[in-house]
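Sample entry (591 residues):
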Amino acid sequence: MNRREFVYTLAMLGASAPLFANSHMRIAPEGKLSDYYKLKPFGNARILHMTDSHAQLVPVYFREPSVNLGIGENYGKPPHIVGEHFLKYYGMEGNKRLEYALTCLHFNEHAKAMGRMGGFAQLKTVVDFLRGDFGKDKTLLLDGGDTWQGSWTSLQTRGKDMVGAMNLLGVDVCTGHWEFTYTEQEILENLKMLKAEFVAQNVKVKEDAIMEEKFKPYDEDEGWAFKPYTMKKLGKARVAVIGQAFPYTTIANPKRFIPDLTFGIDTEGMQEVVDMVRKKEKPDAVIVISHNGYDVDKKMAQVVTGIDFIMGGHTHDGVPEAYPVKNAKGVTYVCNAGSNGKFLNVLDLDIQNGKIKDFKFTLLPIFSDLIPEDPKMKQYIEEVRKPFAKDLNRVIATTEVTLFRRGNFNGSWDQIICDALREVGGADISLSPGFRWGTSVIPGQEITFDDLATQTAMTYPETYVKEMDGKTVKMILEDVADNLFNPDPFYQQGGDMVRTGGISYRFDPTAKMGNRLSHITLLNGKPLEPNKKYKVAGWATVNSKAPGRPIWEITEEYLKAHKHIKQLKVDTPELVNVKGNPGITYKCNCV
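Predicted structure, serialized as C-alpha cells:
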C-alpha cells in the first residue's frame, strides 16, 4: 500500500477539498456529531488512542510548531514537516479546519474563528460515540501517558484529578512518563485508584530495592515493576498490548522521586516480550503503547519484529497516517496522537484467521465548537476545578502577542519565563528547559494564572541564580542540542532545545556534537567569553533541588509588573544549513 492508501483524515465540514483514496469517513455539512464523526463501518476490532494530554481537562488553544527539524534519515519525513510543507505533503491545501488543527499557519485567525480544541468533556462524547457506534465489546481505549501532569489542579491533587478523569473516560490500558515525576508512593496510590491497566516492559525495580522490600515488583524474577503487557478480547479477536514507558525518565526528570526504578529503551527486552507473547498467547494482533517519541518508535519498529502497530507519544506530533516501517520480518506501523487532547486516533482492524488482513487509520481532531460536552464529565471537571477557582481565574496580565511554547527552539511563552528569570533574579543569562507541554494564548486574551500553570505546574519548579563561566554555558547548550539532533534516535532523550534569555547564537543542526553552536553573544553584542563568570538564572533542576522560589511565582511577579505584553523579542538562534528543510516554515508569526 502506498502512503495515501492508508492515510485517512478528517475533512472540513462542507469543504470541497479532496479526501484521500479509500477515505475512512464522509463529509457532513450539517455539523452534527453523529455525522461528523461517523466512520464508515470497517473491520471487527477498534483501537482508540490518545496521548500527552498534560492534564488539560478543558479545551485549549495549542499552536503547532513552526520548527521541527529532521536530520539524517529523518530529513523531510514525518513528523519533521511543518506549515505549508505539511499541507502539501498530505494534500490538505485549502482545508482551514485541518490547517488549524495540524499546523501553525494563520493560527490567530483560525483560533478566533474556530475556538479552542480538546477538552475531556468533548473527548468523552466522542469516545462514547465511537464505542457505541462500533460496539463497546470490540473497542479498546489506550492512553499513552503524560496525563497526570501539566495543570494546577493536577499538581495540587498529585495527579488524582486525572486518574478520576481517566476512569470516567473509560481508559483501558495506559503507560507513562511525567507520571513518574510524583513520588513512588504517590504513583502507587494513583495506580490503585486507576481502573485501567498500567503496562511498561522497560521499567524495572533495582535488585537492592527488591531485596530490601522497598518496592514490590509485578514480577520479581524478571524485575518488572509493572505488568509488561496485557491481553484484551475485542469481540472474537485477541489483542496483546505491550507497554513502553519513556526510556529516559531518570535522565530527563529527577530520579530522586523514583529511586527504586530503572528505565531504558530495552529493545532486547521488547523483542523477548513480543516473542513470548506471540508464542504463549497466540494473539491476533500485537500493539505497543509507547512513550518513546516518534523517531525512537520508528527505529524500534526497524529493529524489533513482530509488532503490528506502535501507538506512540511523547513528541506531541499529530500525524494523520499510520507510518510504515520495514523490518527483518515485515512491516510495523507507527502512529501518534498529538497532545493536549487535540486528537484521538482511531485504528480499525480487519482481523481474520489469526492475523490482521487490513486496517483503516484515522486521526480525529477534537474541534470543541462542534462537539457537545458530556454532562457527567463536565460536572466532574467543574468539581475538580472549583476548590482552585480563585487561583485559576486570577488575571495577571494581558497580551497583544501570541504566546506559545512548542518548537525546536525558543517560544514566546519561554521568552517571558526567561525574561522573568533575568529581571527578577538580576541575571545576565537565563536558561529554561525545552518542555513541549504548555498551551497557547492568543492576542487580546487575558493571561490567567491557569494559563501560566500550563507552562510551569510540575513537582520540581524551584529556581536558581548562580555563577557559570562561558564554557559551561556553551557545554550545557551543546549537550541539550545533541539530545535533540543526534542522528541516532536512540540517543535523543526528548524535549526541545533549552530556551535562553540574554544571549543569541548561530546554530547548525547538521554539525557534530560540540560544534552545533557558534557566535554566542550577549545582548550588548559582546561575545560570550569561555573563562568569564556570568550570573545565570534557571529552574527545574534534575540532579538536586534548586534553592529558589517556584518558577510560577517569579513569572507572575514579572507579568504583574509589566501588566501588558505588547512587544516581545524572542531570542531565536540564527539557523544555518536548513535551507529547503520542510521542518521549518517562515509563514508563521515568530519562528
